[in-house]
Amino acid sequence: MGNSQYCDLTAWGMRSLLGIALTCFWLPTALAQITETGNIQGAVVDRKLEKLLVSHPMTLTIHRGEGPETQQTLTDENGNYRFKNLPLDPTLHYTVSTVYEDTDYTEADVVLSTWAPNITIDFNIGAFTDDKSQVQIKAHTFIVGPPPEDHAPDGAVTIVEAVGVENRSDLPFQTKRGAETVGLHLTLPKGTEGFQAHSPTALTMDFATDEVIFKTPLPPGESQLGYTYIFHVERDGLNLSRRLNFDTTQFTFFVPEGIGLVPNAEFFDAPRREQIHNNIYLIYQSTPGKVFEAGATVDLKLNVHMRTTGGTVPGQDSNLGQLILIAVAAALTGGFFVAALFKLRTINNTTGANTDDTSDTSKSSESPDAGWLRKLNPDDCEHVRVARLEFITHLDDKYERQEISERVYKRLRREQTERLTTLLEQQKRGNNA
Length: 433
Description:
Helices cover 27% and strands 34% of the residues. The chain contains seven helices and 27 strands.
């Protein structure tokens, strides 16, 4: 009886907290700044000497509309730093940085909110690994989408790529790219246009070498990279093939149903059909268990199969690129990127779990939501799921109305989708039980 009352109170409390959190988000920013504050803290460790750095300077940059301002502090006798009483303002974002042995270490795009008022950022500095065998691409996913509205009707499409990469070393990874030392570099197909980084925003594109570059050392554990670019459909298909810089365990294509693009390589299994935000996709995945080794050129070409669109093969004078463009535009709606990128995070997390059977789950980092979610019954979990989705939808609406900056929107949305993914995994485990 006591346990039942406790669960009821817990459920009531969680629903109340979620309601308060959503309400606080909609309150004016000025009120949020006055009534609530948060903290950014962490530890600074010299991994080369395996010691905590004492009295080491740390810098916090607060990015406001009228210009950035900075705060500074020193680590204490335990190597810990803390910036406190920071406003929970979704229009602000923070950067934490330090310099050690002439090397910059930075964590950018940090956002504090009522959902995450306290954030811990540890800096493990001073030692790195350059062992490429410790880095693996666990999931590399492509989504075919419409080009920008102002782009010429020349057969262009937008490609979204989401890359789940794991550094299995205990040290940050960095590698040589010519004379430059970078954290990661990935090859793109020749002819890429209009590159735009999504996560992290520090990703850059070298168009001379057709490479995506992440200059900061790649931290231990799993990281998610995301970016978009414009590419062109030729008469015989969409060729996204490229040379691999790291071992890769999974490729996935999301192709809008009805546009007639089918993977050329035989290592792709038969597609499954799935609806995402009123859009129907054919989802092609490479055969489980197959590893694509670094240094190889992988066949990522999508052939044109006009019979799948219900049309006929055009004559020599037909503009096949325009036909594909029309089909893509007809198949997709305005919610394409939001829906697809949210779906990708769930798929990449699931793929990573399935492809690493030897991992020790007891050592993996756990979402801050995981503990209390296990205490909820199925009905309460469903209430939490709905609240999370409503909050994400509200973020999308504010971003579409340009009421929130792109940088803050991406940070908040990533935070909420991660928490929603944790909830969905908890519900799945409950259903399986």
